[in-house]
Amino acid sequence: MDNLSDLDTRLLVDLLRDKAKPNKSLGQNFLIDDDVISRSVEIPEEFDFPLSEASHVLEIGPGSGSLTLSLLRKGARVSAIEIDNNSIEHLERVFGDRGCNLSIIESDAVSVDWPSGITHVISNLPYQASSPIIDRIMRYHSSSSISLSVLLVQEEFAHRMAMTSAPYDLGPLGLNLWLDFEIYVDRKVHSNSFSPSPKVKSRMVVLKPISRPEVLGINKRLFRIITKHCFSNRRKKMRTLLSVPPNRISRVSGWHRDRWSSSVSRLIESGSTNIKQDWLNLRPENFEPSDWLSITREIERE
To answer: Second label for 129, Cα 20 to 30 Å away, from 9, 80, 112, 121?
Structure first.
């Protein structure tokens, strides 16, 4: 876009940092690496969901607007959620009079209602908000499908999302994403790609929606409650873990502590082997995602 030709990554970061110091409490680390930014906007094309004028991109925590600039140059409509007043004023100064298809939403991305019609989520996520934002992506996708998400997160968090080194990385985060997404771990991003430099390495990760036949009909809310409950004490055996009702079981429609206890007692007494041999004496890390589907179905069975 010609009206953006005078802007570049370093200029945007310098303009913001001249006005205000990065807010440590918000985890502000501004992208200054053009290669990383280019990779973020190129990935959708590799997955057959290229950015275009038909795209509606959600960006969370745009900060200096370095990634925003590249998204706008692709012709995409961008909704940017930003909580920091200095960044909002900066973005309005830089992009406000250029006729860009940019909407700046002054709010917390974890709690505010997201715009309708989002096709992509592309963002350098604040580290401390990564988990709740991933949860928001899952909930949004369940009612209004997102074509693709490209996120920059802490490297360890990326591996937990993808469960790349099971059983070490196996847990509720990756299992719950597995229900609806294929997770691809992309390039490593070093700390010198940001200003100021964080103390940890980052990783680009891609969430591609998938419809798994084996997931059809599963009570996803119950699945999530069960996996979170079991992995909260991952060194205990399943028999012990399931004997105690999850704290939030009543949040699952039709479930309460008495129903849970009755269902688990029936399951233990039956000695069901529909999951795997002697599964009640195994620990959570010993199960594949498909096993957790079986456990959920066995518990739900009347």
So the answer is: 9
